[in-house]
Amino acid sequence: MAEKKEKSFEENLEKLEEIVKKLENGDIPLDDAIKEFNEATKLAKICDDTLKNAEESLTKIVNKDNSLDNFELKD
To answer: What angle do helix axes 9-25 and 30-58 make, rounded to 10 degrees?
Structure first.
């Protein structure tokens, strides 16, 4: 059985944008619109989680002892 490859952030965002365009166009049957909307909310959550994880990892600083701390700008 083939493993399902996890899609990249860019692929998920592109699919989300396609769905939004379809829904904005309005030429889609209600049942299909509901399915597309549900898929869009799942993709939006995945993209949001990806961005939050990226932000968390980018705001860390490695100390001399290789421990991690949150990076903060000091005035």
So the answer is: 150
Give residue limits of the domains in the chain.
30-60
DSSP label of 3: P
d(CA 50, CA 56): 10
pLDDT of residue 63: 78
Answer for the pair 71, 62: CB distance below 8 angstroms, yes or no. no
Phi and psi at 42, nearest 5°, equal -65, -45
CB burial of 53-67 (b: ≥16 within 10 Å; e: otherwise) equals: eeeeeeeeeeeeeee
The amino acid sitting at 29 is P
Nearest to 48 by CA among 36, 40, 58: 40
* Threshold 0.85, pTM exceeds: no
Q: Residue 50, exposed/middle/buried by CB under 10 A (0-12, 13-18, 19+)? A: middle
